Amino acid sequence: MPDYHREQDTNALWIKDGLPVSLSVVSFIKRWLFPALTATVIFILIIVLGVSNTKTSNRLSSVEKSVSNFSDVIKSLNTSLQQAQERAKEVERIRFAVENNKDQLNSVSEALKQLSVVDYLSRSVASLKCSLERIVNNGSGIAACCPPHWDQFDYNCYYFSTVSLSWNESRLWCEKKEAHLLILHSDKAWDFVTRHAASRWFWVGLSDWRTGRWEWINRTPYTIEHRRWMPGQPDNWFGHGLGPGGEDCAHMHNDGRLNDQYCSTKMRFVCQKHSTRG
């Protein structure tokens, strides 16, 4: 047989024998590989969707928290707004009250001005009355004149305060009235002041704060008379608890005797000045 025919026969046999192998591979792919790939893809998709859902769920949870926090902020702002509105109403009420008080204060101020005028006129009338009486009586029988609310004794006028001040404040108050804190040199004047003190304590013009020695407010020396002082006084006590220092100012007890006291203590006082002669 010629070589050509042999070669054709050989090729035909190769094709005939090789055909079942190709069909087996295709069948394997269809039966196993394709489903496996499909399952793998589906599994990957499931994982991706699961991860995506997890992220979405976390985001939703974060959004819910943000919304919840935002709601709390809104509630807090609403509460603050209500409080601000209440405060605004309170401010308005206070403003209204201040306006009313302002009107009342203006009325009081006007009344005080009128009282000041009345007081000035009273003093002027008293002075004129004193002068007229002196003229009518040719200067006889009229010893002196004192301002309204001042008590006259001999040639002095005495003012017994109704307010309580420290010793130094009392001194300044008297000086504004062209007077000074009480100075006593005679038993008669001492008895007069004791009777008019009305069982109260009063500052007098006696102290030792300036030099350490007791002296009257006009700086005349004072010699201690123990009969004029409470028992054991003056003692310059430091245990009063009212501040630094001892007791350097004198006041009169309700029985007329003296006691040393802390100068910043508030109490009534007696002012004294010479009477006016017409």
TrEMBL record:
<dbReference type="InterPro" id="IPR050111">
    <property type="entry name" value="C-type_lectin/snaclec_domain"/>
</dbReference>
<keyword id="KW-0812">Transmembrane</keyword>
<dbReference type="InterPro" id="IPR016187">
    <property type="entry name" value="CTDL_fold"/>
</dbReference>
<keyword id="KW-0175">Coiled coil</keyword>
<dbReference type="InterPro" id="IPR016186">
    <property type="entry name" value="C-type_lectin-like/link_sf"/>
</dbReference>
<feature type="transmembrane region" description="Helical">
    <location>
        <begin position="32"/>
        <end position="51"/>
    </location>
</feature>
<feature type="coiled-coil region">
    <location>
        <begin position="67"/>
        <end position="101"/>
    </location>
</feature>
<protein>
    <submittedName>
        <fullName>C-type lectin domain family 10 member A-like</fullName>
    </submittedName>
</protein>
<keyword id="KW-1133">Transmembrane helix</keyword>
<dbReference type="InterPro" id="IPR018378">
    <property type="entry name" value="C-type_lectin_CS"/>
</dbReference>
<keyword id="KW-0472">Membrane</keyword>
<feature type="domain" description="C-type lectin">
    <location>
        <begin position="153"/>
        <end position="272"/>
    </location>
</feature>
<dbReference type="Pfam" id="PF00059">
    <property type="entry name" value="Lectin_C"/>
</dbReference>
<dbReference type="InterPro" id="IPR001304">
    <property type="entry name" value="C-type_lectin-like"/>
</dbReference>
<dbReference type="InterPro" id="IPR033989">
    <property type="entry name" value="CD209-like_CTLD"/>
</dbReference>
<keyword id="KW-1015">Disulfide bond</keyword>
<dbReference type="GO" id="GO:0030246">
    <property type="term" value="F:carbohydrate binding"/>
</dbReference>
<keyword id="KW-0430">Lectin</keyword>
